[in-house]
Design brief:
The complex is a heterotrimer of chains A (296), B (372) and C (291). Chain A has 296 residues and is mainly α. Chain A has helices spanning 2-28, 36-51, 56-78, 83-103, 105-108, 130-153, 155-165, 167-172, 177-203, 213-226, 233-247, 258-279; strands spanning 121-122, 125-126. Chain A has one domain (2-212). Chain A has a two-stranded antiparallel ribbon with strand order 1-2. In chain A, helix 1 crosses helix 11 and helix 2 runs parallel beside helix 4 (83-103). Chain A is globular, with a radius of gyration of 19 Å. In chain B, helix 8 (227-239) links the parallel strand 8 and strand 9. Chain B has two domains: 24-143 and 281-355, Rossmann fold, CATH 3.40.50.2300; 147-267, 3-Layer(aba) Sandwich (Rossmann fold). Chain B starts with a helix and ends with a strand. Chain B has helices spanning 2-18, 41-60, 80-92, 105-117, 146-159, 173-188, 207-213, 227-239, 255-261, 280-293, 302-319, 323-334; strands at 28-34, 69-75, 98-100, 121-124, 139-141, 164-170, 192-199, 220-224, 245-248, 269-273, 338-339, 342-343, 357-363, 366-369. In chain B, the strands form three sheets. In chain B, strands 7-6-8-9-10-13-14 form a seven-stranded mixed sheet, with helices on both faces. A five-stranded parallel sheet of chain B has the order 2-1-3-4-5, with helices on both faces. Chain C has a domain at 15-125 and 132-221. Chain C has helices spanning 3-35, 42-57, 65-88, 96-118, 142-164, 166-176, 178-183, 188-213, 220-235, 240-260, 266-280, and strands at residues 133-135, 138-140. Chain C has a two-stranded antiparallel ribbon with strand order 1-2. Chain C is globular. The chains are: A mainly alpha (296), B alpha/beta (372), C mainly alpha (291). Chains A and C meet through helix 4, helix 10 and helix 12 of A and helix 4, helix 9 and helix 11 of C.
Chain lengths: 296, 372, 291
């Protein structure tokens, strides 16, 4: 039962993480390959502050705020870039963040990581046990879902999609593409920060090794598998992917196979991605009004 | 569309529940959250071999009070997130009261709070970070911590007459911790550390880092490196004509490193949590390993994992097959117990009281114990 | 070691690393130019190129090196062509994100396939280690000399091919406008195929040189590919000379930086330069091609 609770918490946190990426990738067409950086900033900020005795409510806000501020700063130079090269710029940014976490030992304890992060306490409620934490994580996930749902269904959401589909046309119609992209990027970063905060206080130990490119790719996978540019897609993606991964543990295969099974599983992963892109690039849930794939 | 989602969820749930384990209740199950895939899978495979060997031996002799030991392996995929999942799964699904924890200090420390909270004993055979066992009283380790090795390394360097030397270290939990241990001790002895050079894991080019370390041709360079990184570094240093005495830590002490670096590895020295290899027990272990696997290249920390099984078996025998019993019996079971890796008595921090740190040297392409 | 050779050796190390990055970046930028997407799986071509040579020189084939290298390169080129045929050809009309994710998937697949066959352990070609030649206090091994010479040859080769041959002309036309090129009677598929073959050959050569100089492991491609990304960005999108310059700049900068800052930040150097260039000269990378 605890395992199921644990996985549900992981799914809830990854849903937030994926929802936050989806607003950038799915709705605005920003290929953010450094999304994990904002997750890391949220996690580290909140963890370091609570370890200094700052109450969770404040450190959570700081974590989210720092992530958003970082999004704003990195957005200034990189949002001018087109498509894939925006991706590479953000990827580089994420690497820089990870290296700071790794090398500024005086602040972050470097590769030793931060042990003993406390479980949160909000308005005199302690979220200590698994079911309690699940309530917190689910609550945050639902909140994220509602906020992002509200934003994307609003006129602002339609502008984002217009920019994604044809930036020049949107600009001609008088929309400030850069400002809109910046808003989308900052909102994505804020929620990634939230996911990071929840992650740090759940796992209670973080180290720079948790925040690598692999993590970004996993969450990108979740978004694409579930259906980018849809509200429900990232959630469905998180559920399916994490359950699929973990269900392999229950196949009761002999441990000798593990050395083969590990890479084999990753191979299957890669293959699914490729096949998905060839046969169903829109993911499990298809975006409304997007029946045909268009070339940009 | 919705159909697809429904089908996918149903399938994963079905797989989830249908294959829930049904097994003989009388076996003694021990969990092992090892790295069987991912970046440090090379180590995990070696640990597993030695654990299997010990289990086979114990079971051949009648197990623990007639019950056979069975190890439930769970892949921790070499990353903290999956370490937590693997340990959770072992605790809740397999319901084991004792777990052999993940290798890699940061992986272990990510999982340790889970074991502590669930009141399940978790042991480490190779975690050397200073704070490894701080998560609580259910967490043990049977290998000396880095500070003890750092002290020994500093003393060795000092005894060999080196007063000024640069330090290179691999920029991860192990490297940083050992570097701190070394630098503190070396400075206390009156030595001077001329430069500190962290380097990244898994790179192919360390030439400029080596060049910087070698600036001013120091007589010795401390290089706290791993197998692969070490092999690349010693090779590149050799090519660049670096002539110095390399002083390493335990993680480079592997036949694989010597094999990869070839003659560039000749003469390298280092410290390691020592295992007196000419004891009867160690020779017997080596022979048994050779018999089972056909070669006598004992994997790095394999001997510790071997001891881990025996020690755990002793604790289960003494305290019964419950987490509480094992935890309470651990200190008594370990007291004066001599495994193949020496005295395993726990100290108050559930680490090793006796730290036999030895010195290794590469001679004629083989790793030997250094004798003056 | 006194000061001058110390710095000169660092510059040499930088050039060596830069040559490797440049070879990777050129292959990457070639595909980008023609097909307009970043081939994440390029790192796996690099790695497989090195492993193909490993396969050819070890039992049961045990070919001598001069025979094994062409064999390995041909197989790498075939792999590149197969990648295109199986994955990217069906996706010719797809949008960039789709292509990108397919490439990431392919990269996962190929990397883990290598791990399945050879394990995560490091392998070596097993040639004897030799001390480098010493010139004016600088050390240079035959492998390193080969890296520089072969890189120069590859660069000249790519230049001739791209700017002096019919094939190159077609490629450039395709890069400018796919539909227009098709209408003008250029065999688009054949041209794309040759771009893949050249890109794979560059990857294979780079991978083999890298492995000759160091070791082989399944992640050797990815770790260097990220630098190659930065190199293409610094040099300008889809620009062959830019890729070359970007590679050398990164190689030099990160090696020189190691002498002055904490080497823990070595990898950050490339990205910091990248961000600085974005801030100072954003137009370099807004997507125009300036061949």
């Amino acid at each position: 039962m605890d395992l199921l609770l644990h996985l549900s918490i992981v799914i809830a946190i990854y849903s937030i993480f994926a929802l936050s990426l989806n607003i950038e990738v799915g709705y605005t067409g920003l290929f953010n390959f450094g999304h994990v950086a904002f997750f890391a900033i949220g996690a580290y900020t909140s963890a370091l502050l609570t370890l200094q005795g700052v109450p969770f409510s404040l450190s959570m806000i700081a974590g989210i705020g720092f992530a958003g501020a970082a999004g704003f700063l990195i957005g200034i130079p990189s949002l001018k870039l087109q498509g894939d090269y925006f991706g590479i710029a953000t990827l580089g940014f994420a690497e820089i963040v990870r290296m700071i976490l790794q090398n500024q030992v005086a602040w972050t304890k470097g590769p030793m990581g931060l042990p003993g992060i406390t479980r949160p306490e909000l308005f005199s409620w302690r979220f200590d046990t698994l079911p309690e934490y699940l309530v917190l994580a689910l609550g945050a996930a639902i909140l994220t879902f509602l906020v992002i749902g509200f934003l994307t269904l609003s006129p602002f959401g339609r502008v984002l999609k217009a920019i994604r589909d044809d930036e020049t046309a949107a600009a001609i119609l008088g929309k400030n593409a850069f400002a809109c992209k910046m808003k989308s990027f900052v909102i994505g970063s804020l929620f990634a920060g939230l996911a990071g905060v929840l992650w740090a206080h759940y796992i209670t130990f973080i180290s720079p090794g948790d925040f690598t490119l692999t993590e970004t790719i996993l969450v990108l996978l979740i978004v694409v598998l579930g259906g980018k540019g849809t509200l429900l897609g990232p959630v469905v993606g998180a559920v399916v992917l994490i359950f699929f991964q973990e269900s392999l543990r229950f196949l009761r295969l002999p441990p000798e196979w593990s050395s083969i099974l590990g890479p084999l599983q990753q191979m299957v992963f890669g293959l699914i991605l490729v096949l998905l892109m060839i046969f169903r690039p829109e993911g499990l849930i298809r975006e409304k009004g997007k029946e045909k794939i268009d070339r940009d | 569309m919705k159909k697809l989602v429904v089908i996918a969820s149903v399938v994963s749930l079905l797989v989830w529940f249908s294959v829930a384990p049904v097994r003989a209740a009388e076996d003694i199950k021990i969990g092992a959250a090892f790295a069987l895939s991912g970046s440090i899978a090379v180590y995990g495979e070696g640990f597993k071999k030695c654990v299997d060997l010990a289990v086979e031996e114990i079971n051949a002799k009648g197990g623990i009070k007639g019950k056979k030991i069975e190890i439930v392996y769970e892949d921790n995929k070499s990353n903290p997130k999956d370490c937590v999942t693997a340990v959770r799964k072992l605790i809740t699904v397999d319901k084991v009261p004792v777990i052999f924890g993940p290798a890699g200090s940061s992986n272990f420390m990510a999982a340790a709070p889970v074991a502590q909270e669930s009141k399940v004993v978790m042991l480490s055979a190779q975690g050397t970070a200073e704070k490894l066992t701080q998560a609580g009283k259910y967490i043990f380790r049977i290998i000396p911590s880095n500070s003890k090795q750092g002290q020994r390394l500093a003393k060795m360097a000092f005894d060999m007459g080196y007063r000024k030397l640069p330090v290179m270290y691999i920029n991860n939990d192990w490297g940083l911790d050992l570097k701190d241990g070394f630098v503190t001790s070396f400075k206390k002895m009156g030595g001077v550390v001329t430069d500190i050079i962290p380097f990244d894991e898994k790179k192919t080019d360390y030439r400029t880092e080596l060049l910087r370390a070698n600036r001013g041709n120091p007589k010795a360079i401390v290089n706290l490196t791993y197998i692969n990184e070490g092999a690349v570094q010693f090779k590149q240093a050799y090519e660049m004509g670096v002539k110095t005495q390399w002083l390493c830590g335990s993680a480079a002490r592997a036949p694989k490193m010597v094999e990869l670096a070839g003659k560039a590895a000749e003469g390298i020295m280092g410290t390691y949590p020592s295992v007196v290899q000419d004891t009867k027990a160690y020779q017997a272990f080596k022979a048994a390993y050779k018999k089972k696997y056909g070669d006598d290249k004992i994997p790095i920390f394999g001997d510790y994992n071997y001891d881990l099984v025996y020690l755990t078996a002793r604790a289960i025998e003494k305290g019964g097959y419950t987490a509480e019993g094992i935890r309470k019996a651990m200190p008594a079971a370990s007291k004066g117990y001599k495994g193949v890796t020496g005295d395993k008595t726990f100290d108050k921090d559930r680490g090793m009281q006796k730290a036999d740190i030895g010195i290794w040297i590469v001679k004629n392409g083989k790793i030997e114990d250094y004798k003056k | 070691m006194d000061s001058l050779p110390y710095y000169l050796q660092t510059v040499l190390n930088g050039v060596l690393a830069g040559c490797i990055y440049a070879l990777f970046a050129m292959g990457l930028t070639l595909i980008y130019g023609v097909l307009n997407f970043v081939n994440f799986a390029h790192g796996e071509l690099i790695m497989w190129g090195a492993y193909f040579l490993f396969l050819a020189i070890s039992e049961p084939f045990a070919l001598p090196l001069y025979a094994a290298i062409p064999v390995a390169l041909v197989i790498t080129a075939l792999l590149g062509a197969a990648m295109d045929f199986a994955v990217f050809r069906p996706l010719r009309q797809a949008n960039r994100l789709t292509l990108l994710i397919a490439a990431i998937g392919l990269s996962f697949f190929l990397r883990n396939a290598a791990q399945l066959f050879w394990g995560a352990e490091v392998q070596t070609y097993g040639f004897e280690i030799r001390q480098g030649y010493q010139w004016f206090g600088l050390y240079l091994t035959p492998q390193q000399l080969a890296i520089i010479v072969i890189s120069v040859i590859c660069i000249i080769g790519v230049y001739l091919l791209f700017f002096k041959s019919r094939m190159g002309k077609s490629m450039r036309a395709l890069a400018d406008n796919l539909d227009l090129a098709r209408i003008s009677g250029i065999h688009t598929e054949r041209t794309i195929l040759s771009a893949w073959v050249i890109s794979s050959l560059l990857a294979g050569v780079g991978g083999i040189l890298l492995a000759l100089d160091t070791n082989l492991n399944p992640e050797m491609g990815v770790t260097n590919l990220i630098k190659a990304f930065a190199a293409t960005l610094i040099g300008g999108v889809g620009n062959i000379w830019g890729a070359l310059a970007g590679g050398i700049i990164i190689g030099l900068a990160e090696n020189i930086a190691v002498l002055f800052i904490s080497p823990g930040y070595k990898d950050a150097v490339a990205f910091v330069i990248m961000v600085l260039i974005l801030l100072v000269r954003p137009y370099v990378v807004i997507g125009e091609r300036r061949d």
